[in-house]
Amino acid sequence: MYFTGKDICSVKSSVTDWKETKLGEICELLYGKSLPARSRVLGNVPVYGSNGPVGTHNEYLISGPSIVIGRKGSIGEIHLVKDECWPIDTTYYIDSSVTKCDLMWLAFYLKNLNLPNLNKAAAVPGLNRNDVYNLPVSLPPLSEQKRIAAILNDHMADIARARAAAEEQLEAAEALSAAYLREIFESKEAKQWPKVRLGDHASKIGSGVTPRGGQAAYKPEGIPLIRSQNIYLNRFVPNGLVFIDQEQDQKMRNSRVEKGDVLLNITGASIGRVCVVPDEICPANVNQHVSIIRTGILNPDYLSFYMSNPVFQRFIMNSQSGATRQALTKSMIEDFFIPCPPTKIQLKIVKDILHRIKISEKIITDLRLQMQTIDAIPSAVLNKAFNGEL
């Protein structure tokens, strides 16, 4: 039975009562038992692998609470299981038959040891239990173990709730940009704007080619070659940007990118992602997975924002062609109909969206920093607990 910190009324023991020993002196790591998926019978008993539950069975290997430890695969991962379970042969386990310690306290202690680090020096990937046995431990009396475990259990529950709340807020913040675009481009006003066929007002719609030789054709520096992995919704990501020389660029002169060009991914899983090329990237070129859209009547940022709004993205997903993979052809892009308000309104829309995105990005940055802070708390709490400071 496990208690919460509120149920524990025992007095904290002195650290002088703690005994310095080795883990091998206070517990034994037992081997899990193989149970292939084909041999399992669907039931209520969880089957544990090194990274946690991997299925169920109708029989148990362990009848009560236990600690399951990753031996191969997710090496050193710790799982405290409160009821019967079946740990498979990629794990070790500890139950009350091989330790006199409080299991919750021991599970927290093992987590604090960062057992995955023990794999680094191993010739064969895996957790050697003799390495675990040799680790030092400051062992408090059983009553103190229970007190520490109960406090830690409460702390970890609070931390988990805080992280879940932050994740929910982050998810909402990340959806703000799409909500802004939907609000603007699905408004009653937007529905009154005249629509223009993109092909009738574009001076350039077309993709490039991949240089012959593939990776070997890329240079350490030179003319940037933009690929689909560089293009996200209204965001250009330079990570992974490759380069070609001027000779290759000359051969690909029909797909040169100019300042103000809108870039659209036209194949693969990233189809539909769209952004305006940053001025500092030009001059540049594109490969066959990216189409250039160059138009004078539509502001580039306005066009990119419109094409990235959820409704138009859904339209793109429903417009793909190709028997074996997702694809947008030049003629399909030419047939896109885009709302075309006066230039003054386009510029106002762009300014408004950029302002809103700046606010949402600040919120997202703050929430991610908050989550980093939350993620650092468990380690700090465990260190404090096992140094006798709780």
SSE layout and pairings?
Blueprint: E1 19-22, H1 23-26, E2 30-31, E3 45-49, E4 52-57, E5 66-70, E6 78-81, E7 86-87, E8 91-95, H2 103-112, H3 129-133, E9 136-139, H4 142-174, H5 176-185, H6 188-192, E10 195-197, H7 198-201, E11 202-207, E12 223-226, E13 231-232, E14 235-236, E15 242-244, H8 246-251, E16 256-257, E17 262-265, E18 274-276, E19 284-286, E20 290-295, H9 300-308, H10 310-318, H11 330-334, E21 337-339, H12 343-386
Parallel strand pairs: 3-7, 12-19
Antiparallel strand pairs: 1-9, 2-8, 3-4, 5-6, 5-8, 10-21, 11-20, 12-15, 13-14, 16-19, 17-18, 17-20
Would you mind describing this structure in some detail?
The protein has 390 residues and is of the alpha+beta class. Among the domains are: 19-139, Adenine-n6-DNA-methyltransferase TaqI, Chain A, domain 2 (Alpha-Beta Complex); 194-340, Adenine-n6-DNA-methyltransferase TaqI, Chain A, domain 2 (Alpha-Beta Complex), CATH 3.90.220. Helices cover 37% and strands 20% of the residues. It has 12 helices and 21 strands. It has helices spanning 23-26, 103-112, 129-133, 142-174, 176-185, 188-192, 198-201, 246-251, 300-308, 310-318, 330-334, 343-386; strands at residues 19-22, 30-31, 45-49, 52-57, 66-70, 78-81, 86-87, 91-95, 136-139, 195-197, 202-207, 223-226, 231-232, 235-236, 242-244, 256-257, 262-265, 274-276, 284-286, 290-295, 337-339. It has a 4-stranded antiparallel sheet with strand order 2-8-5-6, covered by helices on one side. Strand 17 (262-265) and strand 18 (274-276) form a beta hairpin. Helix 4 (142-174) packs antiparallel against helix 12 (343-386) and helix 5 runs antiparallel to helix 12. The longest helix is centred in the last third of the chain and has 44 residues, at 343-386. Residues 1-11 have low confidence and may be disordered.
